[in-house]
Amino acid sequence: MSQSLSTTNHSRDIAGLKYIYPVMSRRAGGLSIGINFNTNNACNWRCIYCQVPDLQRGSAPAMDFELLAQELRFFLDQVLHGNFFDQYAVPSEHRLIKDIAISGNGEPTSLPDFDKAVALIGKIATQAGVFPAAHFVLISNGSLMHQASTQAGLQALAGFGGEVWFKLDSGSEAGRKLINNSVQSQSRLLANLKVASQLCPTKLQSCMLSFRKQLWIASEKQAYLQLLDQIKKQDIAIEKIMLYGIARQSFQPEAAELKKMDLNEMQDFAADIKAMGFDVSVSD
Ligand code: SF4
After folding, report:
1. pTM
2. In the chain, where does DSSP find H-type helix?
3. CA pair distance 165, 277, nearest whole angstrom
4. Which of 6, 159, 216, 274 keeps 20 to 30 A from 265, CA to CA?
5. With a 6 A CB cut-off, is 47 part of the ligand 1 pocket?
6. Would you say residue 171 lies in a domain?
7. 8-22: per-residue pLDDT in tens?
8. What's the gap in Å between 43 CA and the centre of ligand 1?
9. What is the total count of domains within the chain?
10. What CATH number does residue 176 fall under?
11. 3-state helix, strand, coil in the chain (%, to 5)
């Protein structure tokens, strides 16, 4: 019997590989090939909506580059020339690779030799004919942009036509402390964003949710818009702002207290962002 691969099934080990996992992405509208550098479930942040089970604080472990190359070549071959789509009963309209996303069980840029991993993935996907048709995406919390390996990795990513999806869940330091358990100052955030956008096309991704009547309330929305204003004033180039809701189960202690945001409210907020001149999308 074929296994079904749905937009809600994001199991990291569905393909039985260490670094590669397939996702039918609701945002991408086709197959997204995820690459997980954080096989130890370690991140330098702890977002309250994080769906990583047994999340711990820390960095990605050293990469087995030979295994990564083997797995990626094998998996791309299964998708392009094998029976992957039949095996997982993927509907015909979704039988295309939309992107390869470096998005793991933690912050990917914490990987030692992050740049080497980006270059290797880009080279293999190009050789397989997947790039440049498919997108190459780095999903990052953006907190390690000061590292030389992160900057070199973003340069490599840009060389393959890639883009960064930079997490921004709150426009205030207090909001980010609450939602991300991070202690990122406004100035550090803006500096990181500037570095990212100068090296590679950068989009913001913001998770909208309700929590203890403290997140995404009127004052938080105002803080977010004020931050966007600063971004404009500092000439930081943002390609797009992607607002999204919580569709998946959080594995954090706060899970029961998280509430989905009303779609109309998200769309109203998107209209405010658009009025400032930004390209914006909403997915609930
Ligand atoms: S940055 Fe990503 S991996 Fe890290 S805690 Fe937040 S959601 Fe989880």
Report:
1. 0.93
2. 65-81, 84-87, 114-127, 148-159, 173-180, 186-199, 218-233, 263-275
3. 19
4. 6
5. yes
6. yes
7. 444 445 568 999 999
8. 6
9. 1
10. 3.20.20.70
11. 40, 20, 45
